[in-house]
Specification:
The chain is α/β, with parallel strands linked by helices and 320 residues long. It is built from twelve helices and eight strands. It has an eight-stranded mixed sheet with strand order 3-2-1-4-5-6-7-8, sandwiched between helices. Bound molecules: NADP nicotinamide-adenine-dinucleotide phosphate (NAP). It comes from Euzebya pacifica.
């Protein structure tokens, strides 16, 4: 059973954690810093980073914590953040694509993309692609993309990925789609690492049901209706009863980031429904394993974000 006692010495390693000011990201940053890594904690504002740093510092006075401002809901901002990281950190050993929003009212990113898919998937697709250089420079780098048990409920409706043609906005379906996209991306990235023969691993993890801000942050955003109010109350009541502690919930993604796990693996809690329990191999559903769909999503993501993964192009110009 994986615990924090199993973390290897990460002195000299650089890790980047998105959404590191809250919940699972904060816990992941705390663990990686505790093992000696330099941890670049992305947050949407310096104030949020400062609060997170103040949370870690009392138990780790020497933690090497760095701030980079990142808003995944703006591709310009993603480019700027990646540029800052590339210029300051020639090697990135671990990237944890953790940030996320859930069940928000209908809204769009700065680029006009549907907010949940835009933030959770397209933002991380762009961010990872823009960090390929320092990741590949590190040797045996690890990219961890946080998915969810909700990926099982996700559908890749390629005719209407952003619900532009649907009547009414199904926020739950869109969150599930974004988490399916996260897992498909993680698996496809590993296939592309393999095809290009590069020394890096892409893995995924999910935290079951962990009590964090996730359950209230999205549903409380302006623009929500009755459904969002009811969901907010429901999840506030459920969280302390059903939710795992954030310390336990973060273990799958920490394990995925530091243990000697195979590329393309997926980790989560082992209890009923993978909702809680010790870390083990998690179930990847048929839709997430569909390689043709993953390649299609990849091409759409390149077109949507303008970010290409040139370093993974093979000598024939294609990775497939
Ligand atoms: N908790 C669970 O039960 C559960 C279950 C399955 C999957 N997950 C996944 O776990 C990951 C972490 O979530 P959590 O539970 O730790 O929730 P959380 O406490 O709400 O943390 C989410 C983090 O993402 C950041 N974020 C939100 N929008 C962003 C944006 N546009 N740009 C950059 N960062 C942004 C948040 O920043 P702000 O503080 O500025 O909002 C926060 O740091 C998510 O990917 C989520 O889908 C969680």
């Amino acid at each position: 059973m994986f615990t924090l006692a199993d973390l290897p010495d990460l002195t000299g390693r650089t890790a980047v954690v998105t959404g590191a000011n809250s919940g699972l990201g904060l816990e992941t940053a705390r663990a990686l810093a505790g093992a000696g890594a330099t941890v670049v904690m992305t947050a949407r504002s310096k104030d949020k980073f400062d609060a997170a740093e103040a949370d870690i510092r009392p138990t780790n006075r020497t933690a090497d914590l760095r701030f980079v401002q990142l808003d995944l809901a703006s591709l310009d901002n993603v480019r700027t953040a990646a540029e800052v990281i590339r210029s300051e950190y020639p090697e990135v050993d671990i990237l944890v694509n953790n940030a996320g929003i859930m069940m928000t009212p209908e809204a769009t990113t700065a680029d006009g993309l549907e907010l949940q898919l835009g933030t959770n998937h397209f933002g991380h697709f762009a961010f990872t692609g823009l960090l390929l250089e320092p990741l590949l420079a590190a040797g045996d780098a690890r990219v961890v993309t946080v998915s969810s048990g909700m990926h099982h409920r996700g559908e890749m409706d390629f005719d209407d990925l952003q619900q532009q043609q649907s009547d009414g906005y199904d926020t739950t379906a869109q969150y599930a789609r974004s988490k399916l996209a996260n897992l498909m991306f993680a698996l496809e990235l590993q296939r592309r690492f393999d095809a290009a023969g590069v020394d890096a691993r892409s893995v995924s993890a999910h935290p079951g049901y962990t009590a964090t801000n996730l359950q209230s942050a999205g549903v409380q955003l302006p623009g929500g209706g009755l459904f969002h109010k009811a969901a907010s109350i429901g999840m506030r009541l459920l969280n302390p009863i059903v939710g795992m502690s954030v310390e336990q919930g973060a273990l799958p993604q920490i394990h995925a980031a530091v243990s000697d796990v195979p590329g393309g693996s997926y980790w989560g809690p082992q209890g009923p429904g993978e909702m809680r329990g010790p870390v083990g191999s998690a179930k990847v559903n048929r839709k997430a394993r569909n390689e043709a769909d993953a390649a299609r999503l990849w091409d759409i993501s390149v077109d949507t974000t303008g970010v290409t993964y040139d370093a993974l192009e093979t000598s024939t110009g294609s990775v497939r």
